[in-house]
From TrEMBL:
Residue stretches making up the 3-hydroxyacyl-CoA dehydrogenase NAD binding domain: 9-97, 113-220
Natural source organism: Serendipita indica (strain DSM 11827)
GO biological process, one term: fatty acid metabolic process
Molecular function via GO: NAD+ binding; oxidoreductase activity, acting on the CH-OH group of donors, NAD or NADP as acceptor
Protein name (database record): Probable 3-hydroxybutyryl-CoA dehydrogenase
């Protein structure tokens, strides 16, 4: 058992890029055995192959000895597909990752965005709470879903939030928001649910520190600290582009050279794929969006039906598909009409909405 965090074993639910990264730092830095769960054997093999490459790269650079790399790799155990989450019944900590494709929770739209769904997450945490020991900590890597809702889902059937068993089960749920790429990024956001116990917080923090991360604490609000700040930042950059205040490249260059940012906001938005947050905001707030100020759509915008009370309409424009910049790809399909067809939402919506919703 590690003296640093007290976890003898952990489970990582989801073997995509984030899940692999968390498994990597847990096995290498925290030196804790990791049980990796994913429904896709192909994804498992891709992740293990990538981990081997990462370890070999660190060895070649002199960051690790061959023995350290070998030990880290041997700490990773793949849970057989037929076991699913039942294979985590004896671990001390489970970290659920957004791009999971396991235990019968299928992706319907491909990629990470499809699984940032509150109903899927709550159903999953209900199953997890029943599958693992009562003292197992349940952590989620979500960047947008309420930790409090997932904690409520962890209350056993037949129990209430006020009953001793119900209260204890909800108290073990916590947010551990790692950043991509996990082996490189130094930050983890620690987010308590309203029900989370201090013991759970302390142990989760100790685990993140043992993984070599700096930890910041955030209340359980939309976007936490990181995205509550990031979304308005990206939003204003898009507004500048929409109003033709500056070109795409000049907006990015201004922030990179003038403010010492490693990359510009529009380049960052390309990497971040904000449709995930957009969808989550619309699902959560619905008609609460009708007070939001949005710059009038330009002739470049493909308009969608607007909210009747405001005329709020589609805001995104062709900056997604402009050519000539690294990683600029056609992503118009990522910004789609909302589920109830109110409007084609944009980053402008989530940023303003997040600020209002958390006050």
């Amino acid at each position: 058992m590690s003296i640093a965090h007290g976890f003898r074993t952990i489970g990582v639910l989801g073997a995509g890029q984030m899940g692999l990264g968390i498994a990597y730092v847990a096995s290498l830095r925290a030196k804790v055995p990791v049980y990796l769960v994913d429904k896709s054997p192909v994804q498992i093999q891709k992740s293990l192959s990538l981990m081997d490459k990462l370890l070999a790269k660190d060895v070649s650079k002199g960051k690790l000895s061959e023995q350290e790399a070998k030990d880290a790799r041997q700490r990773i155990t793949v849970v057989p597909e037929e076991q699913g989450i039942e294979g985590l019944k004896d671990v001390d900590l489970v970290v659920e990752v957004s791009n999971l494709n396991c235990a019968g929770y299928e992706l319907t739209e491909g990629g990470q965005a499809a699984t940032e769904n509150v109903n899927i997450k709550m159903s999953l945490f209900e199953s997890l709470a029943a599958a693992v020991r009562p003292d197992t900590i349940l952590a989620t890597n979500t960047s947008s879903i309420s930790i409090t809702k997932m904690a409520a889902a962890a209350i056993p059937k037949g129990e209430t939030a006020a009953s001793p068993k119900g209260k204890a089960s909800a108290a073990r749920v916590v947010g551990l928001h790692f950043f991509n790429p996990v082996p490189v990024m130094k930050l983890v956001e620690l987010i308590p649910a309203l029900q989370t116990s201090q013991e759970t917080l302390d142990r989760a923090r100790a685990f993140a520190v043992a993984c070599g991360k700096e930890v910041t604490a955030s209340k359980d609000v939309p976007g936490f600290i990181s995205n509550a700040l990031l979304m308005p930042f990206i939003n204003e950059a898009i507004m500048c582009l929409e109003k033709e205040i500056g070109t795409r490249d000049d907006i990015d260059k201004t922030l990179k050279l003038g403010m010492n940012h490693p990359m510009g906001p529009l380049q960052l938005a390309d990497l971040y794929v904000p449709a995930l947050g957009i969808r989550r905001t619309d699902d959560e707030l619905g008609e609460a969006l009708d007070w939001i100020r949005v710059y009038q759509s330009s002739k470049f915008c493909i308009k969608a039906p607007a909210i009747p009370s405001t005329g709020l309409a589609c805001f995104w424009r062709e900056w997604w598909t402009l050519a000539g910049s690294v990683r600029r790809a056609a992503r118009g399909s990522m910004i789609t009409k909302s589920n109830n067809n109110k409007c084609g939402l944009s980053v402008a919506v989530i940023s303003q909405c997040t600020v209002q919703h958390r006050t």
